[in-house]
Amino acid sequence: MDAVTSLLVRAYRGDRPERTPVWFMRQAGRSLPEYRELRVGTRMLDACLDPALAAEITLQPVRRHGVDAAIFFSDIVVPLRLAGVAVEIEPGRGPVFESPVRTREDVAKLTAIDPAEVAAAAAPVREAVGIVVDELGGIPLIGFAGAPFTLAAYLVEGGPSKEHLRARAMMHADPDAWGRLAGWLARVAAEFLGAQVDAGASAVQLFDSWAGSLLPSAYRAHVAPHSREAIEAVRARVPVVHFGVGTGPFLADMRLDGAVDTVGVDWRMPLDAAVRQLGAGVSVQGNIDPALLRAPWPVLEAHVRDVMRRGRAARAHVVNLGHGVPPDTDPGVLTRIVELVHAETADP
Ligand code: 1CP
């Protein structure tokens, strides 16, 4: 089986394969002792841009859990670093920018950078993806990027925030500056996705993790068109997954007018209800509640079975969590979920 005909790619495209594929958002990372060991002494973004290290970290959860996909070890701010933006990832906090982008002048200065710089500087990314794809031998690699709004949520604020007020305010206070910023971020994300697909990624996921903070009308008017632009170039080449947290009030808009093959659903909405909102012609991914990872196994097992049963309402389903693996998760629990999902066949 090669990566193109993998269970994962078939499910994303809408064919219900003989068994349901499973992987976990943030499967590469702090829940794994072998990750923590490798990361000692290396800053996060330096690790992302070290091809051998990034490749090894990407492969760790595939070896350990037997998941049906790898997700490339990187971060949503890596393309900004490649564009020359001063950004660091602070341990325990997240992305922090030296100069927040808050005014029209800030936006003008940033968007003067040619997004093609990202592709030119992405050699370590292409090299890492190449190593991973060779090692995976048919297991698909998922590439990813942050969607323009989620990137802007960090960039405008200057770091992590709860409600992303500054980015949400900019689109109403100065729609023109917002449009230029989000348009530029879309091209940066597109270059990053393109580099991963060129090097052999079999699917991509656009993370709009913080889109749930938006009013649905603001999402439609000021965000969705830019997210669509970010995936426009790759969507003819590989299946596209679109994920956000708390996007229930405008879930159908996450289809981006049919440009998306699969919508990632967080844990708040049962998958059958999500499918009713989404309509036909799209696959779903999700949505085990990360909180249940700490429950006794019989409780978690019943939840995973319920997620799988509800996922049958969709044309196809890829099992995942409703958001990322919490850092203190017992990795053995994730392996056990993979075994459970693999023991079930997709057809009754
Ligand atoms: O100190 C460390 O070890 C760094 C922790 C860490 C890791 C392991 C960060 C900082 N990023 C990552 C890797 C990462 N980031 C991956 C790797 C692949 C995998 O999933 O296994 C991916 C896909 C991301 C994407 C990412 N970064 C998102 C979207 C996904 C999501 O979880 O919603 C977001 C929002 C970020 C920003 C970010 N980077 C790091 C942190 C701690 C955060 C969140 C900060 C916040 O809470 O606002």
List keywords for this structure.
348 residues, alpha/beta, two-stranded antiparallel ribbon, TIM Barrel, binds coproporphyrinogen I
How would you characterize this protein structure?
The protein is an alpha/beta fold. It has one domain (3-343): TIM Barrel (Alpha-Beta Barrel), CATH 3.20.20. Helices cover 47% and strands 11% of the residues. It has a seven-stranded parallel sheet, sandwiched between helices. α14 links the parallel β8 (283-288) and β9 (317-321). The chain is globular. 51% of the residues are buried. Bound molecules: coproporphyrinogen I.
Number of helices: 15
Low-confidence stretches: none
The CATH architecture can be named as Alpha-Beta Barrel
User: If you compute it from the alpha carbons, what radius of gyration comes out, rounded to the nearest whole angstrom?
Assistant: 19 Å
User: How confident overall, as mean pLDDT?
Assistant: 97
Q: Write out the strand line-up for the largest beta sheet, numbering strands in chain order.
A: 1-4-5-6-7-8-9
* Count of distinct structural domains: 1
- From the spread of the alpha carbons, the general shape counts as globular
In the CATH hierarchy, what is the class? Alpha Beta
- Helix-and-strand structural type: alpha/beta
| Distinct bound molecules | coproporphyrinogen I
CATH topology: TIM Barrel
